[in-house]
Write a structure and sequence with these properties.
The protein folds into 2 domains: about 260 residues, CorA soluble domain-like (Beta Polymerase, domain 2, 2-Layer Sandwich), CATH 3.30.460.20; about 50 residues, Methane Monooxygenase Hydroxylase, Chain G, domain 1, CATH 1.20.58. Helix 1 runs antiparallel to helix 2, helix 5 packs parallel to helix 8 and helix 7 runs antiparallel to helix 8. The protein is rod-shaped and about 115 Å long. Helix content is about 55%, strand content about 15%. It has 9 helices and 8 strands. It has about 325 residues and is an alpha+beta fold. The termini are far apart. A hairpin with a 7-residue loop joins strand 5 and strand 6.
């Protein structure tokens, strides 16, 4: 089985985007990876974790993505400067209203002289890095020149840094909702608030389990992945913590906006009910008079000349008097 591989200074970088069952069986045969781990990836049943085995280590991470559709304009990749190497292109986040952030999974199998990455088409950052390493020796040396654990760090760093774009998208959505509270229809604003709150919760489910993982890496809990890498993992932990803090701030903002909008809807509803109640109160005595004189019985003033105009004037006077009374009481 031919697996996409780049080799540099004895280190093999194997990148499997949307791997097939045949490729997973080849990994089991060639590297001795546990079939349970491979099946877990295939059926997406894992949570973020680190597991240490005799011959390799396994790191599972969740990453955010936005599902592309035929109506979604393809974003243009733009380079963002990374900490230790040259510019790595990160995919731009499509600014499509009410797009839902989803969870993608990336599995890293780390050995002494290899790194195997399993992911799907939702993680184009890894494919970009792989292609750049394939094209030039400079990128191969920058990314792969310090061993498999450093290569793991470089990929994780790119994935975490690119997640900031999704945090920015959530923040921009909240700002847009805040500005348009009084402009858009209630149904539109409610849907925007609902999608934004859901995106924050989904994002938090990805970031929360990553915090203890990188905290343990910073503390040196996993010997095969530590050594001189503690400072680097501290950098990743700092970025993950910043994402968590911003999500927490955004969660408070959207909750506050949601409560404010609910209060605004209540005020608007009360205003409508007040107006309708005033109209009902004004029309009620008029309807009563009209109903009484519409019955086939003898009533006062019914037989005098001009009774119609007299009763009409009386009804108008009643309506005017009630309007004036409501205005004095500031009910209308």
């Amino acid at each position: 089985m031919n697996l996409p591989t780049i080799t540099h200074n004895g280190l093999s970088f194997i990148n499997l985007s949307k791997p097939t069952e045949a490729q997973l069986r080849a990994l089991n045969k060639n590297f001795g990876f546990s079939l349970l781990n491979l099946e877990d990836y295939l059926y997406k049943t894992q949570i973020p974790k680190i597991e240490l085995y005799k011959e390799y280590s396994l790191l599972v991470l969740d990453i955010p993505y936005i599902q592309q559709t035929s109506k979604t304009k393809e974003p243009t990749n733009k380079p963002l400067t990374n900490t230790l190497t040259s510019q790595i292109p990160f995919p731009a986040i499509p600014r499509v209203p009410r797009k839902r952030i989803n969870i993608g999974e990336v599995d890293f199998f780390i050995g002494k002289d290899y790194l195997v990455v399993l992911h799907d088409e939702k993680t184009s950052q890894i494919d970009e890095l792989f292609e750049m390493c394939k094209i030039t020796s400079k990128y191969r040396e920058d990314v792969m020149g310090k061993g498999s654990v450093f290569l793991l760090y470089r990929i994780v760093d790119i994935l975490i840094d690119s997640s900031f774009a999704y945090v920015d998208a959530v923040t921009n959505a909240i700002d847009s909702i805040d500005r348009q509270l009084e402009e858009k229809s209630s149904a539109d604003v409610i849907e925007d608030i609902s999608v934004t709150r859901r995106n924050i919760v989904v994002f938090e489910t990805m970031i929360k389990p990553a915090l203890p993982i990188f905290a343990d890496l910073e503390k040196g809990k996993y010997a095969p992945l530590n050594g001189e890498m503690a400072l680097y993992w501290s950098n990743i932990l700092d970025h993950v913590q910043k994402i968590w803090d911003r999500l927490d701030d955004n969660k408070e903002l959207i909750e506050g906006i949601s409560r404010s909008y609910e209060s605004l809807l209540t005020v608007r509803t009360n205003e409508i009910i007040r107006v309708l109640t005033a109209f009902t109160a004004i029309l009620l005595p008029l309807t009563l008079v009209a109903s009484l004189y519409g019955m086939n019985v003898h009533l006062p003033f019914a037989d005098i000349p001009g009774a119609f105009y007299l009763l009409t004037s009386l009804m108008i006077l009643i309506a005017v008097a009630m309007v004036i009374y409501f205005r004095i009481k500031n009910w209308f």
